[in-house]
Specification:
By secondary structure, this protein is mostly beta strands. The chain contains no helices and eleven strands.
């Protein structure tokens, strides 16, 4: 069974950068679609970015041009590089993965069986 662990969160100031990692065990991520969701204070869960097994990518409008999602299959890890962070990016970030998920469903949480525990990102001056 695939298990996911997020790391790399923390407290940063507006304009700074942070890179989150989603590392898998129990299986390789090569054939998985992986997504990053976030849950901000008083907000619904939002699909931030996802990457397909063929490295197709999606970004929600609010992070386009600032965030980059990529995978390193040798490390069984998907990364979310977050640049020019805004206070509105403050949230708990969760990664999820699903084997050969059709990419058009990549930000639909109901399609994912494997989830990380979540990690806090706080952007504040």
């Amino acid at each position: 069974q695939l298990q996911l662990v997020e790391s790399g969160g923390g407290l940063v100031q507006p304009g700074e950068s942070l890179t989150l990692s989603c590392t898998a065990s129990g299986s390789t991520l090569d054939d998985y679609t992986v997504v990053w969701f976030r849950e901000g204070p008083g907000k619904d869960r939002e699909g931030v970015s996802c990457i397909s097994s063929r490295d197709g990518t999606y970004y929600t409008d609010s992070v386009k041009g600032r965030f980059i999602i990529y995978r390193d299959n040798s490390k069984n890890t998907v990364y979310l590089q977050m640049n020019s962070l805004h206070t509105e990016d403050t949230a708990t970030y969760l990664c999820a993965a699903q084997y050969k998920l059709q990419f058009s469903y990549c930000v639909s949480p109901g399609y994912y069986d494997s989830w990380g525990q979540g990690i806090q990102v706080t952007v504040s001056s």
